Each structure stands twice: as structure tokens, then as C-alpha cells.
Amino acid sequence: MTQQTTGIHHITAFVRNAQETVDFYAGLLGLRLVKKTINFDAPEVYHLYFGDEQGSPGTIITFFPWANSRKGRIGGGQVGITSYVVPSGSLAFWEDRLKHFNIAFEKVMRFSETYLQFEDRDGLKLEIVEREEGQPSKWSFGGVPADKAIKGFGGAVLYSTAPEKTAHLLEHVMGLQKVGQEGAYARFKSTADIGNIIDINVTPMPYGAGGAGTVHHIAWRAKDDAEHALWRSHVINSGFQPTPIVDRQYFNALYFREEGGILFEIATDPPGFARDEQPDSLGEKLMLPEWFEEHRSQIEANLPPIQVRVLEGDKQ
């Protein structure tokens, strides 16, 4: 049986400062903070999720803000660049917005598309590209109107220590289609309309080092628990060693490391972020899994306060 992921589910990265991360991704980029929870393996650290108004698969970037973490080094075995997609005709808005907030950027061309490439406060590499594909956002915040807002992921650029093996996995294990090669990049496409374009740097890259400003893993979509179980068997039969399935409250997950060093996750679309909060109040309260509820007061006391706020540059 052929397995085929529809695209990216989420991307998870390390940062240092929780409030700066909220200001950048909600305040500057206009994403919605859809879930405020903790790292289940380190409850003294937030796990923050940003996405569209619902936190739909293909829109979600998540962060572990470790205040005293080392600075990471982007390199092989990582997502090198996280791509966001915006509506056609809105790239000039984003160019002006980055200038307004003194965010350095450069314009680059790849596969006949123009990208604005820039970094967040910790050096995580991001880019914005405009495309027709993808449902328009219904979320607006601060200075980002809904008709200019980020739809979700455009995709990602993978940095691999063994790009030929990573490419083989994308095509023959994950079910993406190779659609082109241009210069330093090979391009693969999945079937979703967002989170669907994956470029691989075809030059082997030396290993990066995890830490603030780097991606920890990229997660791919499984439509439900039944397909998720099939994915685990498929990954094993393809010669990889996935973890057992883990309950992450808002999706189930399994993990494996591909031969180019990148940590892959496969995550279920359901149950989603409204399982424990009303859709109109997502991200407003610290949500804990039931096994941590008895420690809520201690956990909350150890976490720095954060708030979603309109940036000063948008009040002028």
C-alpha cells in the first residue's frame, strides 16, 4: 500500500524569550497564539503554538522557550528555512511591514518565485512567498489585516547531511512528488494546498547544532489514528525505527530520524486545539494535561508571564 502525506502538520523550534516570541509571531507576523501549554517532558518550560484562527494543520509553528539555552547553529540535519505563504499581491505589504519594524531581509528567487528572507529574534530563518493556493486567513491582529495575513506554511527548505537519501525518503516513503531541480535545490510537492512545497539543498551540509534559533523537528500529516498506525508500520517496513505512538493531547505523534539527520514526526490532524478550549478563546489560558493539573500552581509560578499584545509600531 502506498502511503502519502498531504504535507506539513507543524514545525517546532527552540527560542530563548517567551514574550519576545509572542511579540514576533503574534504581534509582528499576525499569527494567532492557539495554545499555551508546557513541554510535557520539562514542565518548567512553555510550549507555545501559533497558527491560523483554528490552529489548522499546515499552519502551526511551535516553540520551546528556554531562557538560558545555548545559541544553536543552523546546518545539516535540520529544517534550514521555514516558509510562510501569503495571498498573491501582498508581498509588498510584508516588505513594508518588515521595514517598519526594522527587520532586515533580502529578496531571493527560487523556482521563479520571489521570497522575502529574514530571521526572528533568535536567528531562526524564515521566508515569505505569495501564492494563489491556500484558503485566505480569517484572522487579523494588530497591523495585519486578514486579506494580507499569512495563510500557513508555504513549506520548508531542508538542510541534509545526505540529500540524496533525504530526497529518496520524501519521494518513496512520504509520498511527495519531485517536481523540479534548479541550481542548489530540488523541489518536492505534496497534495495539500499549504505546507506542500519542500525544497532540499542538494549539497551535503555539515551537521548543525541544536539550540535557540534552530528547528527541532518537522511534522507531517496523518489524517486520523487509523492512518497513523499504518504510517508507523510503513516507516518500519521502509527501514527506519519510529518511536511508539505518543499522545500529545492535540494530536498523536511518532518520531524517527531520517538518514540526512533530520528529525521527522508524523502527527494526526485530529483532535485539534479546541478539544479543551472554546474556539473563540484559544490560547488565553495555560492548558495542562490532566496528569499535571495537581501541580498547576507550582507550574504557573515557575513560568514567566506572557501576553498577546499589539506592538507599539502598530499603535502609531
Automatic annotation (TrEMBL):
SUPFAM superfamilies, per the entry: Glyoxalase/Bleomycin resistance protein/Dihydroxybiphenyl dioxygenase
CDD domains, per database record: PcpA_C_like
Keyword Transmembrane helix: no
Record's keyword terms, sorted: Dioxygenase, Oxidoreductase
Superkingdom of the organism of origin: Bacteria
Signal peptide: none
Protein name as catalogued: Ring-cleaving dioxygenase
Organism: Paenibacillus sedimenti
Lineage, broadest ranks: Bacteria, Bacillati, Bacillota, Bacilli, Bacillales
